[in-house]
Amino acid sequence: MRATLIWTINDFPAYGMVSDWSTHGKLACPYCMENNKAFTLTNGGKTSFFYCHRHFLPMNHRYRKNRKDFFIGRVEMDVAPPRLSSKELHDVVLEYGDIVFGFQSGKQKFPSFGLTHNWVKRSNFWELLY
Ligand SMILES: [Zn+2]
Q1: How would you classify residue 30: left for phi > 0, otherwise alpha for psi between -120 and 50, otherwise beta?
Q2: pTM assigned to the model
Q3: CA 52 – ligand 1 centroid, Å
Q4: pLDDT (tens digit, 9 = 90+) per residue, 5-54?
Q5: Cβ atoms 51, 75 nearer than 8 A
Q6: Ligand 1 centre and the CA of 30: distance in Å?
Q7: Contact by Cβ (8 Å): 23, 32
Q8: C-alpha 53 to ligand 1 mean position (Å)
């Protein structure tokens, strides 16, 4: 029997479970990854992504220059972070080895977790043939 995964439809927490990219913390955005513009709220200390994705808009989009309705007087002039191709992303994921889960695993995390990446483990979906 053969099966093909074409796509998944899920909410953001489920996306984290399917992709094994943790959707918590400052690196929660799986598109921006380490290039995100998340900030910590002064009251409460929560990570916020408000106004952090205007750089995906076209350069001449009116929202980029809108100082009134977005982040306090800030004009967005940055370009979107580079989007990895599936091959590039696969190569990144292969850098991370397998994590043994279960009682003997303890609290294993890949080095630099939460600093440069949010990979929790390598998803089994990467083992499929594409
Ligand atoms: Zn993002």
Answers
A1: alpha
A2: 0.76
A3: 7
A4: 888 899 999 999 888 899 998 999 988 998 988 889 999 999 988 888 99
A5: no
A6: 7
A7: no
A8: 6
